[in-house]
Amino acid sequence: MAEEPAFTRVLKAAEVEPGTKKAVEVNGHSVLVCHSNDRLFAVSNICSHAQEKLECGRMSRGWIACPIHGARFELATGRAMNPPAKQPIATYPVRIVDEWIEVSVPPPG
Amino acid sequence: MAAELEERKALSKGEARCPAADSTQEIIAKDKVAAPGWVRSESYQFLGDEDISTDRYIDPKFAQEELDKLWTRTWQFACREEHIPEVGDYHVYDLGPYSFIITRVAKNEVRAYFNACMHRGTKLRASGTEGRASEFKCSFHGWSWNIDGTNKGIVCEWDFPHVDRKKLTLPEARVELLGGFVFINMDPDAPPLAQYIGADFKKHIDAWKLEDRYTYLHVAKRLPCNWKLAIEAFLEAYHVIITHPQVAVSNGDANSQYDVYGEHVNRFISPLGVLSPHLSGKYTEEDILAQFTLGDSGALGGEKRTLGEGATARQVMADMFRGMFEKATNSDLSGVSDSELLDCYSYTIFPNLYLFPGISLPMVYRFRPDPRDHRWCLYEVMFLRPVPKDGKRPEPAEVIRLRDDQSFKDAEGMDPGFGAILDQDTDNLFLQQEGLEASAKHGLTLGNYQEIRVRHFEKAWEKYLAMAPKRPDRERLPRR
Q1: Confidence of residue B299 (pLDDT cuts 50, 70, 90)
Q2: Which of A41, A104, B23, B294 lies 20 to 30 A from B325 at CA?
Q3: pLDDT tens for each residue of A31-54
């Protein structure tokens, strides 16, 4: 069984208030930490459709929408909810330890 | 002589009312907390008694004519303002082949862009989607628009010396905001919304403050019938005793009140907590209290219902509702009348919007034709609850899309009793569609009073269908 990548501390928990999101770089990946529907999610910040950044998109009710072409993704699973995207975006394990948000993102390559 | 006059009056068309039962107004007049003026008025009008031709429901040519004549001229509910709270937020609204990106461009300004790239026509946003745009960029060749509708850029502009980007702003439908609803109209010559709905009804909707509600449940389902049949299934309480026998015990159905307002708005008031005149003498006040069904009972919990000495079921329910809805929805209902807490007010704004401004039955319905098949339509029901007293507005509910074979009870958050009512209402519809196609009688026959809303609706339909086609034309639409 593949070992889960180590968790990396990225932000203080208080920095991502309910209904907000923040982009961070981890192991060369642009990761979006989202606080929606009373929980935290960590997903790829890059839209699977045309590689645009998702960080300025609207987040609501457990999804995020790409601000450029409008694809939406489920934060819990990364599933593409509507065109023009068909492919999912990556999702990453996320946890809070000692008031810090930690994400587990694979190493580069 | 006076008695004779009375008799003649009783025989005039449209004058007859359910005999031996209190009228809706008489029922409401006995309530402890008095109803406001918009409840305590009547506006019935006799509009004829000839049959309504049925080809409009079964011949696909009318579906196309509706798209060319009716939907391009009428005010339509596109989304709620709560769906686009921030500048840049958008919501895609479709009607048949037409599609609009409803976008908030400033705190108090919403626009409806025709959802098509001005290069080779690709939709700028997929149907059924929403989000926040930093730009509307076509996913085909990348022509792009700012959220204010001005053109942002053309890829390889050197190849388009014949295109003036200043003239490339996105065409818009007209937009008006009312009661938290975003209405659009594709017709640059249509009357303003206030004139379209009329001054009388404008006073009603202004009194309801529906902008202070939020959508806590939103369910969509395809129905196997023409969109007009679906609408007309909800325009009267005449069907209650047969279609919803479980409700009739606590619903004044045959003595409901029917009103019309101008050309585009009609309503009924169906009093609850009283026995159906059909069942007179067969049930007690205890029975009425026990069988009371309502749309938003999720707000109530399992409160015990008890009838005190000399009390009426209607008053007991009103008193109970006031406290329980206040608690459950964290809202202030002290100024709300018993009737507003209990009764079913159903208003139609032609062509396809229903508003139920009551507290226990707080729905919005919307019906849209299926552009590929005139024998199918899309039905939506939304429940609007008061925004909590602390002012924190919950996000509007995500749409739950039911499969064709699913019950409304399957929608999470739907009151099972109300889901059963919607199933009963909609399960007849394929039979009516098929029956109209099978029938040797080519007209609907309508009751003069209880089915006046059906006739009123069809009169408006006939008015628009008699007009010349009017497809949206970029040159005639407002553009910045």
Answers
A1: low
A2: B23
A3: 999 999 999 999 999 999 999 999
Residue B39 clears pLDDT 90, i.e. is over it: yes
Contacts of B346 (CB under 8 A, 6+ apart): B234, B235, B267, B268, B270, B354, B355, B356
Contact residues, chain A, for B131 at CB < 8 Å: 57-58, 65-67, 70, 72
As a CATH number, domain B14-54+213-465 is 3.90.380
Class of the CATH-defined domain B76-189: mainly beta
Residue, of A109 and B260, whose pLDDT is higher: B260
- Extract the tokens encoding B117: 């790239």
H or E element that contains B391: none
Q: Rounded distance, CA B258 to CA B477, Å?
A: 38
DSSP string, B281-307: TS--HHHHHHH---TTGGGT-S-----
Interface test with chain A among B92, B100, B101, B129, by most A beta carbons within 10 Å = B129
Provide the residue type at B420 as one letter.
A
Question: What does the domain layout of chain B look like in residue ranges?
Answer: 14-54+213-465, 76-189
| B104 interfacial to chain A (CB closer than 8 Å) | no
Question: B398 at the A interface (CB within 8 A)?
Answer: yes
ipTM reported for the complex surpasses 0.95: no
Encode pLDDT of B88-112 as tens digits.
Answer: 999 999 999 999 999 999 999 999 9
Predicted confidence at residue B293, as pLDDT, reads: 65
pLDDT surpasses 70 at B444 = yes
Note the maximum CA span of chain B.
Answer: 90
3-state SS class at A93: coil
DSSP three-state, residue B464: helix
Mutate to test the interface with A, among B86, B113, B139, B145 (most CBs of A within 10 A): B139
